[in-house]
Amino acid sequence: MPDLLTTTQLSRRFGGTAVVLPIDLRLEQGDILGLLGPNGAGKSTILRMLSGDLAPSGGEINICGEDLLERPIQAKRFIGYLPERPPLHRDQTVDEFLWDCAHLHGLNRGQAREASAQTKRRCSLEQSGRRLIGRLSKGYQQRLGLAQAIIHNPRVIILDEPTDGLDPAQIRQVRELIQELAQQRGVILSSHILPEIEASCNRVTILQQGQGVYSGEITPPDQTCYRVALEQEQALQEITALTAVAAAEQLHTDSYRITLETGCQPSDLARQIVAMGWGLVELKAERISLEQLYIQATTGGLS
Amino acid sequence: MIPYLAWMEWRRLMRTPLAWGILGIGMCLLSWQFLATLEIFNGMQPSSRSLGLSHHLGLQLYGLASVLILITTPILTIRSFSEAFRNGSYTLLSSAPLSNFTILCGKFLGILIYQLLFTLIPLLLCLSLTIGTQLDHGLLLAASLGLFLLSGGFTAIGLYFSTLNENPGIAAAGSYGLLLLISLLDQTTDGGSFIHWLAWPSHFLDLQLGLVRISDLAYFLLLMIFFLGLALYRLDKRRSG
Fold first, then answer.
1. Is A76 close to B97, i.e. CB distance below 8 A?
2. Residue in A81, A86, A104 closest to B98 by CB
3. Closest Cβ–Cβ partner in A88, A89, A105 for B96
4. What is the pLDDT, as a whole number, of residue A303?
5. Within this chain, do residues A139 and A162 fall inside the same structural domain, yes or no?
6. Cα(B136)–Cα(B40) distance, rounded to whole angstroms?
7. Surface-to-core class of residue B91, CB atoms within 10 Å of its CB (0-12 exposed, 13-18 middle, 19+ buried)
């Protein structure tokens, strides 16, 4: 499958300071690539360069076969971009704004009407068409920002903190929308919120001070690892003696991190703990893979 | 795409109370000046009238209109880039498949449509007199053309300063500084010098008196091209920042 977006040794300096060190990124159809890193790691700068808003200091950006730096107008046809601050005209209504956005991307009147209706449906803005953008709540403005990024049906969607300012129900909607969009396209999104990346993306690039410190697939959460809380403290040897337990580690006085023996289910573990009469208070899967990756990467444990 | 952008800019401008306020206040002030000019002209002895009514209107009414355009243009142009940079809405254009040239021309023409409306106010006031008297239509059209070209030049200067800074206040101050400078350049210099030529009032005066000279038209066109060129350079530089 041809790549939708590739960067080669992409870098950016502001004055004498290197904000993004040479980085290679690749996006295929169906990919949701997450840029993860602490604030100031260079995520937004990378996304601004990919959208054509900012020229890189070095390197190349290729979008659907077009060089963004050599042929920016042709390449930008394939891009939809939601920057950190949604680019909205506060004095327009939602309908007027989307109409303008569609025309700016070269859609004709008929296409614009259809695209506007479809995008409003996708972003749950059907009821807000006549409302003034300046009067919308932050969540609605964020959704409208997303709407302007996808209205022209771009093949590459670039989203900078797409769920910022949304409530939990809206975050879920946006995640589902991103999954739906990614089936026919490629999505790059940035976040400093780990669960956000874990829930949405299939690949991640971790950034630290402008440097890509890790890039690869997000490993599925390690489902052999569980957190167990008991009514009373038990000796670690007794716990490891259970047949379902491969290894155990004490976290607090009465809680443990337990790795299951291969082939064992959490129900086996629960049954054995109950059989011992230890009083099982809590048993939950530990989702630590990306977190561990992130901590290791940003503290220099990975290269 | 340039016509759509121009229409978009104009439509958004007409959404602001500012645009209507300027048109309304301009209408009041120009009407006052119009009536005052008529009053003075009527009070003159026919023997002491060295110039016709059209000349008086060209000088007094269009003179005030040019000052009003000087005052209002920077306020209109700071919205186009400076404020859009500041509130992040410029990204909508910069990430769309549009060249900087297209964006700049669209915004320039959008404001020019508005300036055309403003230019029509003194013309319509003068034409209201055609019921009772004979006017020099050529002179009034020349003065209107001059006012329109002047507003084009001022708009280009305003847009250039708008691209310079994300702070609208500084952008406006810069525009006012330059506009006042080129208004005063002919006060202290000799008639034939280049610096004297750079000042707009003498070029505008010819048109106010009904003289359409290629050199004056060229002055206003060069003013527009020069500052739009600088603005385009700034937009390109901004992307590579």
1. yes
2. A104
3. A105
4. 41
5. yes
6. 19
7. buried
Residues of chain B with pLDDT under 50: none
A70 and A153 together in one domain = yes
Instruction: Indicate the DSSP class of residue B88.
Output: S
Q: Measured between CA atoms, how close is A176 to chain B, in angstroms? A: 25
**Residues A98, A188 share a domain:** yes
Backbone phi, then psi, for A18, in 5-degree steps? Answer: -80, 115
Residue where a domain terminates, one of A190, A217, A244: A217
The two structure tokens encoding residue B68 = 């009003």
Residue A160 lies in a domain: yes
Closest residue, chain B, to A91 (C-alpha): B15
Among B1, B11, B85, B95, most A C-beta atoms within 10 A, so best to mutate, is B95
Q: How many angstroms separate the CA of residue B11 from the nearest CA in chain A?
A: 10
Residue A102 belongs to a domain with what CATH number? 3.40.50.300
Cβ(A157)–Cβ(A138) below 8 Å: no
Query: Taking the CA atoms of chain B, what radius of gyration do you get in angstroms?
Result: 19
Q: What is the pLDDT of residues B189-222, one digit of tens each?
A: 677 788 888 999 999 999 999 999 999 999 999 9
Question: B83 to chain A, minimum CA–CA distance in Å?
Answer: 11
What's residue A219's pLDDT? 63
A81 lies in the same domain as A102: yes
Query: Residue A242 maps to which CATH number?
Result: 3.30.70.1560
Domain hosting residue A267, numbered range = 225-286
Is A301 among the domain residues? Answer: no
Percent of chain A whose pLDDT exceeds 90 = 41
Residue A51 touches chain B, beta carbons under 8 Å: yes
- Kindly state the percentage of chain B with pLDDT values over 90: 76
User: Which chain A residues touch B5 with a CB distance below 8 Å?
Assistant: 104
Residues of A in contact with B239 (CB under 8 A): 53-55
Q: CB of A1 within 8 Å of any CB in chain B?
A: no
Structure confidence at residue A240 (pLDDT):
86
A100 and A243 housed in the same domain: no
φ, ψ of residue A232 to 5 degrees: the values are: -130, 155
Q: How far apart are CA A44 and CA A160, in angstroms?
A: 7
